[in-house]
């Protein structure tokens, strides 16, 4: 949808308020990490070699287009319109969980705003001491054989041609990085001449110029970083048009790519998905495929007539934070069921603990930020401003914990157990990190963990699943990953019990059955992800574990 009672795109499903930049599953992290890294300016610029974009030039127009050729009767949705929601997508028939709803090629792909020094072809972060310069335009590349050379989803021949007159200043790396902010808008603008069909698709997207202009922060920023930059480069574009493509990107772009790639992309159709803080779909982009398609899949079953939704905020944040993010960067006030419910659909994901009686303290009116927060049992009340301060202080402290610090997360959970409710999103975030750390970092390798530690991992995963089943139900990555994490300690505990003969055959069979059910669902969910992504690899590991469990059948008979 494009109105702003519900929502509009951006990036979707960060797992965590901070574990973005953490270890195993950390897709789509970057910003903060980069800020740190970007300080390493001014080192020597040796090893800069030149690549030849001309050798790759045949690609631009010839990339296979997916979807276009598919018969339209395949579509399981239609576009609807309402004054409140703008355009949005509705299921025209029942859709099964896991079914592909949209598979769309990218209209445009470009660097994220605020990215570091990255390859113009593949968006990989570059070390300024060993980057390659494009032989045509001298802009930075990862190598002369970057797979994004000559492709419209990377460094196209027409972009190279345009940037030939804009020599990058390698003596001022900070400024060079800043100039990346103008590249995605430039790529949009170039389509007008280079690919009118894509330009038309892009032009149909909402830019919210009025709201953005009235806000007074984004407009001047884009003026400085994009409009003035393009002027300085002597590229003749209408100012209003530049602001419009900036808006289209801000409102509609998806963050794409894994592991350190810093790209955003626009997709036809997918941009029409309505926002909901409890999304009904998941999506994934295929970095390696031509046209870099985005696949949107139903995570839960849809009935004909159901709105098909996506979450443009982080599901693992509380209502205050999600709504703030949606207001600031997506320009609408979310009033979805989760946002409107003080308990966030029973999860209590924002609840504090009452200092007097220990019951939940919840917002009296979550859609009205100045409303006080009240204890569910006694007359205790907190002013909204006090809640914000407390939350800020706790978030700051939480952010200080090192991403791999098991003891740090555990002590955060202990320290604030009388302040935050068990399923407060900061606790969920800590637990989400712990669910991935236990079993994988030194001192906590899975086969060396004590029974107590293994049971702790099980407990954490079960706590998370209770909430994920509600906020990201069905075939969501969060559930797929956590189910995998849950199987591991259960398997080790079961094996140990079996080896010391502390388990009956019947009990063994039941426990293996449970493990098989977690693994099967995990393999199914994560099997939708690109094979070489962290999730795709986890799916492979889950399938492998399943086949190993099958070997137990000669001892106990058929498991499932
Ligand atoms: Zn590259
Ligand atoms: Zn070039
Ligand atoms: Zn919401
Ligand atoms: Zn109370």
TrEMBL record:
It comes from the Eukaryota. One of its GO terms (molecular function) is N-methyltransferase activity. CDD domains: SET_SMYD. InterPro entries: SET_dom_sf (IPR046341), SET_SmydA-8 (IPR053010). Residues 1-67 are annotated as: Disordered. Residues 27-38 have a biased composition (Basic residues). Residues 10-21, 39-48 have a biased composition (Basic and acidic residues). Gene3D superfamilies: 1.10.220.160, 6.10.140.2220, SET domain (2.170.270.10). PANTHER family: SET AND MYND DOMAIN CONTAINING, ARTHROPOD-SPECIFIC, MEMBER 4, ISOFORM A. This is SET domain-containing protein SmydA-8 isoform X1. The lineage of its organism: Eukaryota, Metazoa, Ecdysozoa, Arthropoda, Hexapoda.
């Amino acid at each position: 949808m494009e109105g702003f009672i519900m929502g509009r795109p951006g990036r979707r499903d960060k797992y965590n308020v901070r574990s973005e930049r953490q270890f195993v599953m950390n897709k789509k992290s970057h910003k903060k990490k980069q800020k740190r890294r970007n300080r390493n300016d001014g080192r020597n610029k040796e090893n800069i070699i030149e690549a030849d974009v001309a050798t790759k030039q045949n690609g631009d127009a010839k990339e296979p287009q997916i979807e276009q050729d598919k018969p339209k009767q395949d579509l399981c949705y239609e576009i609807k319109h309402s004054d409140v929601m703008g355009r949005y997508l509705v299921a025209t028939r029942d859709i099964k969980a896991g079914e592909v709803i949209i598979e769309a090629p990218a209209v445009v792909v470009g660097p994220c705003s605020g990215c570091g020094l990255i390859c113009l072809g593949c968006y990989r972060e570059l070390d300024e001491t060993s980057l390659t310069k494009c032989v045509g335009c001298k802009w930075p590349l990862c190598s002369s054989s970057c797979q994004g050379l000559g492709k419209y989803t990377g460094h196209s021949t027409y972009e190279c041609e345009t940037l030939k007159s804009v020599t990058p200043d390698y003596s001022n790396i900070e400024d060079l990085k800043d100039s990346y902010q103008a590249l995605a808008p430039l790529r949009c603008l170039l389509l007008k001449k280079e690919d009118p069909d894509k330009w038309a698709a892009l032009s149909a997207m909402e830019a919210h110029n009025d709201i953005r202009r009235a806000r007074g922060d984004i407009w001047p920023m884009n003026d400085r970083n994009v409009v003035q930059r393009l002027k300085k480069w002597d590229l003749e574009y209408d100012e209003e048009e530049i602001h419009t493509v900036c808006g289209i990107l801000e409102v509609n772009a998806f963050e794409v790519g894994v592991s350190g790639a810093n790209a955003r992309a626009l997709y036809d159709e997918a941009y029409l998905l309505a926002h909901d803080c409890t999304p009904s779909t998941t999506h994934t982009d295929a970095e390696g495929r031509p046209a870099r398609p985005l696949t949107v899949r139903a995570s839960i079953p849809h009935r004909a007539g159901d709105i098909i939704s996506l979450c443009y905020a982080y599901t693992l944040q509380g209502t205050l934070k999600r709504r703030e993010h949606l207001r600031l960067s997506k320009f609408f006030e979310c009033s979805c069921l989760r946002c409107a419910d003080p308990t966030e659909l029973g999860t209590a994901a924002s609840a504090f603990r009452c200092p007097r009686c220990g019951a939940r303290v919840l917002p009296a009116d979550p859609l009205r930020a100045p409303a006080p927060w009240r204890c569910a049992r006694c007359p205790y009340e907190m002013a909204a401003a006090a809640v914000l301060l407390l939350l800020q202080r706790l978030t700051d402290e939480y952010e200080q914990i090192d991403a791999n610090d098991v003891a740090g997360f555990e002590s955060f959970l202990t320290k604030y157990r009388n302040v935050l409710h068990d399923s407060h999103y900061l606790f969920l975030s800590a637990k989400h990190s712990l669910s991935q750390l236990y079993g994988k970092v030194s001192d906590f390798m899975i086969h060396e963990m004590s029974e107590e530690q293994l049971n702790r991992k099980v407990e954490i995963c079960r706590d998370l699943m209770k909430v994920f089943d509600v906020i990201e139900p069905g075939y969501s990555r969060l559930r797929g990953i956590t189910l995998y994490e849950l199987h591991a300690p259960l398997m080790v505990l079961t094996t140990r019990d079996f080896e010391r003969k502390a388990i009956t055959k019947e009990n063994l069979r039941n426990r293996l059955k449970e493990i098989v059910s977690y693994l099967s669902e995990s393999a199914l969910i994560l099997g939708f992800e690109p094979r070489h992504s962290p999730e795709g690899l986890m799916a492979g590991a889950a399938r492998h574990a399943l086949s190993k469990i099958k070997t137990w059948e000669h001892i106990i008979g058929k498991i499932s």
